[in-house]
Amino acid sequence: MCNTPGACSSTNQAERAVTHVQTLLCVLVATIMLSLDAPSTAQEWPRFRGPDGAGITATPDDPSLPDTWNRSENVAWRTEIPGVGWGSQAER
User: Fold this and answer.
1) Under 8 Å between Cβ of 48 and 54
2) Model-level pTM?
3) What is the 3 state secondary structure string of 23-61?
4) Does 1 have pLDDT greater than 70?
5) pLDDT number for residue 27
């Protein structure tokens, strides 16, 4: 029991601070563990247009990938770049 005025509130604040630090530590550890697994699940594309230069993904039937696109359809963003370039579309 707390017999001194204000002693209980400082104890509660200290307990809340420890709990907050423990929560942040758990989130940090979980984030690190999940990010360590991410590279092993990603498809390796060590060069332009993929491992063999064909530009074909291992999951071509993925429903989240668009089948068609043009200047306004299935475009996340656009910007005008001066001059002539050899760019290609970027997909996520």
Assistant:
1) no
2) 0.32
3) HHHHHHHHHHHHHHHHHHHCCCCCCCCCCCCCCCCCCCC
4) no
5) 92
